[in-house]
Structures are given as C-alpha cells and as structure tokens.
Amino acid sequence: xxxTEHVYQVGGSTLSHPSDAAIxxxxxxxxxxxxxxxxxxxxxxxxxxxxxxxxxxxxxxxLFLTHCHFDHVGGAHKLxxxxxxxxxxxxxxxxxxxAGDQYVTAANWYGSFLTPCTIDIKVNDSEKSFAIGSLTxxxxxxPGHSPGSVALTVESEGxxxxxxxxxxxxxxxxxxxxxxxxxxxxxxxxxxxxDILCEGHFGxxxxxxxxxxxIESFL
Length: 219
Ligand SMILES: [Zn+2]
Ligand SMILES: [Zn+2]
What we know:
24% helix, binds zinc ion, single chain, alpha/beta, six-stranded mixed sheet, 28% strand, Metallo-beta-lactamase, Chain A
C-alpha cells in the first residue's frame, strides 16, 4: 500500500499476519529503510508485499525498530537475515530485544517466544538523523509506552510523515511504561505538527487536524 511517493506500508494485521503491528517502508528508490518487523509469523507475506511494490531487496539498508514489543520486533531476526540490513533501535529497548526477554517485550502475551535479534546501531540520543539516500529520516526518543520507544519522521511530497507507532499505548508496569514520560512524549508528537501519521495498529491518518485529534485523544 503506497502512502506517499516515498512511503509504503508492507505489513500489518491485514497485510501480513493478524498479530503484526504495521510495517512501513521509506525509500528514495535507491536506498530503503523498513520501520518495524511484525511478529515474524507473516514473514513470507512481508517479502511478497515488498516485491509487489517493486522495492529492490538489495536496497534495504536499515530496519528501524520503534520499540521492543513482540508485535513490532518478532520478525526482526528474519528480516536482518534476509536483507543483511542494519537493525537500529534505542539503547533502552535494544537490551530486551538482544536478550530475548519474554516479558518486557510482551512475547508471552502472544503465547510466543521472541527470537533475539542483534541490534547493529544502538541509539542513545534524544534525536538522531539517518540519510536514506536523498531522504533524511529523523529518530526521536519518545519514552512512555516503553523506555526506549522512538518515533521517526521524514519529509515526503513537502509533507511531514510521522511514524508514531504505538501512540495509543497501552501503559503497563510489566512493559516498564511510564505515565509522565508518555504524556510528555504525546505533547512532543503534537508539537511536530505532522501532516500524516502512520500508526502501529490504527492505520494511517491524513491531514494535520486528523493527526492532532488522534494524538490528543490519548492525552
Ligand atoms: Zn507496543
Ligand atoms: Zn504494538
């Protein structure tokens, strides 16, 4: 599913596997980054969706993980193996993915097990930019839902596209959620004034007003 000239959705509950969070793709045609990996149970369908959009598999250089939860990272080791891409995550969540923690990653909620995945680039900054060919993908630390949650933004067609993923939460002690951090992070997401929001489970919101209303509904 194409969202803008440079942004696609290639996985999610209706696109790859019912338990998968959304998997997005940012590409300038030469270099491509994936955002989140799903559970891994829909891996073959993710590969087919990528091929269907004519995205060159050898151009997939990065896999960004927005946070450590199983529905977003379960398939990371398979994608890393298939594309030989660099996996990027915030340091505070990377530890749970590399350790295959079954509780903080919520793998046990899915009656499944997280296969650990090496995180090639552990980010410790509140902001970091990555060149995806001619595009700039910005990573923003937005703790709350998990300690090392990140949002990503990219400019495409003159619009700011926000990959907020689990904007909606939930907050849970086992997941090491923090309510104050979460509220502060939602306020930060609002301040970005994004034109398009790509959410982890609720789909894609178009227009500043729609994006604002969705984020505000969780404040
Ligand atoms: Zn989550
Ligand atoms: Zn999720």
